[in-house]
Each structure stands twice: as C-alpha cells, then as structure tokens.
Amino acid sequence: MTWVVIAITVLISMRAFNDRRMFDRMVFEPFVINTRQDWSRLVTHGFIHGNGQHLFVNMFVLFMFGPRVEEGYAKLTGHSGTIPFLVLYLAGITLSSLPGYYKHRWDPSYRAVGASGATSAVLFASILMFPLDKLMLLILPVPAPAWIFGILYLGYEWFMGRRGGDGIAHDAHFAGALVGIVFTVMMHPPVLGGFLQAVTGPFA
After folding, report:
1. Residue 151: is its pLDDT beyond 80?
2. Which residues contact 127 (CB under 8 A, 6 or more apart)?
3. How far is CA 53 from the centre of its chain?
4. Domain presence at residue 199
5. Does any domain span residue 179?
6. DSSP annotation of 112
7. Chain segment 175-192, per-residue pLDDT in tens
8. Which structural domain, as residue segments, surrounds residue 135?
9. Local confidence band at 167 (pLDDT 50, 70, 90 cut-offs)
10. Mean pLDDT within 49-60
11. Is 151 domain-assigned?
C-alpha cells in the first residue's frame, strides 16, 4: 500500500504542478471550506505539493517508514496491515488539518498543501511500535533510538508552531504525530505498554 500511495501522490502532484485549476480545486483553504462547505479539501490537499522538493521529502519519509508500519500493523492484528495503514494515512491527512482549519477559517489568504500530516502520522506509528529503531535525521545528525527523536520532533514542532512566521504548517505536523500515536493505540492498546517497557527497560 505504501508504494500505491506514493505512486498516486506523485502522479497527482506532478499533474497539479502544470494545471493551476486542478491545484486550486484541491488546495487546503479553511476559508473556502468554511464558507462553501467544501470538505473534500481536507483530504485532497494531501495529494498535491508546493514544489518538487516538498513532494520528495514527504514521499521519502513515507518510503522509509510506510513499509515498517504496514509490517507492524500486520503483527499487531494478525492480518494484513494494508487497510489499517490506509486508514491511518487518510486520517493523518484529514485530522491533522483540523487545527489549521479552526485557526484560519476566517482568513481568506491562508492556503496549504502537502502530505506532511499523514507522513508524520506514519512516522509516529512506527516510533510507537519500534521505539528502539535507530534514526538519523537532520535535526538529530547522529543515530539515536526512535523514541528520543520523537520527543525532540514533538518539542520542535510545538515550539515552531507557537512561534510561526516560517510558512510551514507545524500544527499539522504535531497533530499528525498525535494521530499516529492515538490510532495505533486504539487499534491495539497493549502497544503502549510495549513502548513504555522498551523505553524504560535500560533504566529499570
């Protein structure tokens, strides 16, 4: 399913780069959603991106963590992880947009695009299920357990969301992370205990 989502997102994004009318119909505009009740934009914006770099970063994160989450969901449920992963992804797109919607629903100038909320949900579902996996990303340029990266990521997104002014929807990143955690716990509550045991084990 990860590959299917990546393929669909790349194809739609590439087309929207060259079709302004299509882009404008799919972009996340809280004011338009509020005044016209155009709720489809809560989902469609996750399949278009601002530029090639934006698209690459989101799809790279999905490529890195999507298969891991599908694998984890299969182990948790004893069935295929395909449907739970797809539900997680779509929930990540939609629910991560709600803070931005309520904050900007009377602002006709606010627009946003991209799958960052969904990829954040996938990332944190992976962290919850595999907290001791080693991650090495830009804000943490040395290998470290995934749960440490997760704490730093949440702190960074919360701080930047409060500060604002950089044109990035940090509130969607933060909300997406919470979606990934809550969805995974709701699907299989014991995963939270497993996470805590793995994280506190070295200190026990």
Report:
1. yes
2. 133, 146, 147, 149, 150, 180
3. 17
4. no
5. yes
6. B
7. 999 999 999 999 999 999
8. 2-194
9. low
10. 91
11. yes
Q: Residue 1 is encoded by which pair of tokens?
A: 């399913």
Q: What is the pTM of this model?
A: 0.89
32-43 b/e with 16+ CB inside 10 Å = b? bbbeeeeeebbe
11 CB-contact burial (10 Å; exposed 0-12 / middle 13-18 / buried 19+): exposed
The number of domains in the chain is 1
Helical H runs in the chain?
Answer: 2-17, 20-26, 30-36, 41-44, 52-77, 82-95, 98-104, 116-129, 146-163, 170-187, 190-200
CATH number for the domain spanning 116: value is 1.20.1540.10
Q: What is the rounded distance in angstroms from the CA atom of residue 41 to the CA atom of residue 43?
A: 5
Structure tokens at 79: 């069935």
Cα–Cα distance for residue pair 121/128, rounded to 1 Å: 11
Mean pLDDT lowest for which of 27-41, 95-109, 125-139? 125-139
CA atoms of 66 and 7, how far apart (whole Å): 13
Tell whether 9 is covered by a domain.
yes
